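Today's session is about reading a structure prediction critically. Students often jump straight to the picture, but the first step is always the sequence itself: look for stretches that repeat, for charged clusters, for runs of hydrophobic residues. Only then move on to the predicted structure, which in these notes is written as discrete structure tokens rather than atom positions. Here is the chain we will use throughout the hour.
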Amino acid sequence: RLKPGEDRFISFALDLGTLVNTRSKGGREPVFLVRVVSGVFQAHFYESERKTYTLTNQTERPRVVFVEHPLREGWKLSTDTPQPFEKTQNTYRFRVELAPRATAELEVAEQRALMDTYALNNLSSKDLALFVSRNYVDAASRAELEKLVGIKSRLAAADARLSEIESESREIGEDQQRLRENIKALNETAEARQLIARYVQKAGEQETRLEQLVAERRKLQEERARLLAELEAAIRGFTLERKL
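Below is the predicted structure for this chain, in token form.
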């Protein structure tokens, strides 16, 4: 069914007089923009794809060939692609005129915008080295990011030491439980009293060590809270928008 004044393509036969070959290539283009948004470092780039249609007229008569190229969500035609004759809901339609026995090429280049993202609160020295090698950051931004990485390094050291303290405290607690059980099981003999004295002395030393660990833990937790606040402030204060 056709509406008044409507044109529509109708497939009705296989054209043996025209040959069409295609070849495709694609890849990632260089980053063209870097920016920081809400604590996330963004590296914007285009993924490109180029499809070449080679059309050959094997007849003695001129021909007009319409090439339908899929229209894909998120992709747009590059500026060096010829404007399509028309655009449907699902395809671009290109018009190519072919002289008798002639060959012509139609290149359709497309690109879509993508980006790599890096959360600044997870930024590593390896990420920073990548930014520097690819010229994503200038000297001032590099210095600010090095400060962030330094804070994260101190945070990691504090977390590692807190984990060691928890492990040592747990081991002392388990050992003290064993000592209490041993003391409870001993008889009131001279040898038992000597052993009990040793156990009590060891338990006293362990209590002293536990007090030291508790004090160190408290100090590390305070330091960790300070570093977290410093990291959050540094992330909030870091802005960047750089065209490459």
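Discussion point for the tutorial: The first helix runs from residue 125 to 133.
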